[in-house]
Design brief:
The chain is of the alpha+beta class. Helices cover 15% and strands 34% of the residues.
Length: 130
């Protein structure tokens, strides 16, 4: 699945209103490691307008698309506990796809911040209503 497909899929679901390309980031599970790897430009976090960043995370093993809606303020509040790549001016997340620590940032150098509280919905797999 790619970003455009994920946004289109989520837009068809109940409760997924407000998804905008400018504030939505997408990831498939990394082939080498059981994580969703994302880079969020710091300019997007500072940009006025949207109060949240949407993360669409696709698990090709189960066919499930997860939607996390994270307030920008959360990133700002936890900036020192997250990993910033200064050369790219972006925040880097490695969110675990393992059941026991799903949606936890497991990037070396980070503090294991939990993103599970921001899970808004999951679609697909055996629970797919379509």
């Amino acid at each position: 699945m790619n970003r455009s497909e994920a946004i289109a899929c989520a837009a068809r679901q109940k409760g997924a209103s407000g998804l905008r390309r400018s504030s939505t980031h997408f990831a498939n599970i990394n082939a080498a490691k059981e994580v969703w790897w994302l880079e969020i430009p710091q300019t997007k976090l500072a940009q006025a307008g949207d109060l949240t960043i949407n993360l669409l995370l696709y698990d090709s093993r189960s066919g499930i698309l997860h939607h996390l809606q994270v307030p920008k303020l959360f990133f700002e509040t936890h900036e020192k506990q997250l990993v910033i790549r200064p050369e790219k001016a972006c925040l880097v997340l490695e969110l675990s796809s393992e059941k026991a620590r799903q949606f936890r940032d497991v990037r070396p150098g980070g503090d294991g911040i939990e993103f599970r509280p921001f899970l808004k919905a999951s679609w697909g797999g055996d629970d797919d209503p379509e």
